[in-house]
Amino acid sequence: MFKFLKGVSAISTTELSERLSGEIELLDVRSPAEYRSGHINKAVNIPLDKINTYDGKEKQVYVICQSGMRSKKAAKLLRKKGYEATNVRGGMSHWSGKIRGGR
């Protein structure tokens, strides 16, 4: 695992793909319109501007956006709230796995 600036850990989309076979909490911080246009099946949409309202039970969360920038910001905010947040480098623009549209 690669450590990013200011203690935000990051994984590649390939590593995320491997972890999706287990039970993980994946947050998609893109806008609702971006999420509806195509997202990873297990992803829950919590737009970046609403990330402070996130109150999940799992302490380990993975965060994805389109390119990795918004998710990095979200991961920093979640870490301040006590979550073990991991950014997905490259985001959906590097994702080559299955996606689904709609909600």
UniProtKB/TrEMBL annotation:
<dbReference type="InterPro" id="IPR036873">
    <property type="entry name" value="Rhodanese-like_dom_sf"/>
</dbReference>
<dbReference type="InterPro" id="IPR001763">
    <property type="entry name" value="Rhodanese-like_dom"/>
</dbReference>
<dbReference type="Pfam" id="PF00581">
    <property type="entry name" value="Rhodanese"/>
</dbReference>
<protein>
    <recommendedName>
        <fullName>Rhodanese domain-containing protein</fullName>
    </recommendedName>
</protein>
<feature type="domain" description="Rhodanese">
    <location>
        <begin position="20"/>
        <end position="100"/>
    </location>
</feature>
<dbReference type="InterPro" id="IPR050229">
    <property type="entry name" value="GlpE_sulfurtransferase"/>
</dbReference>
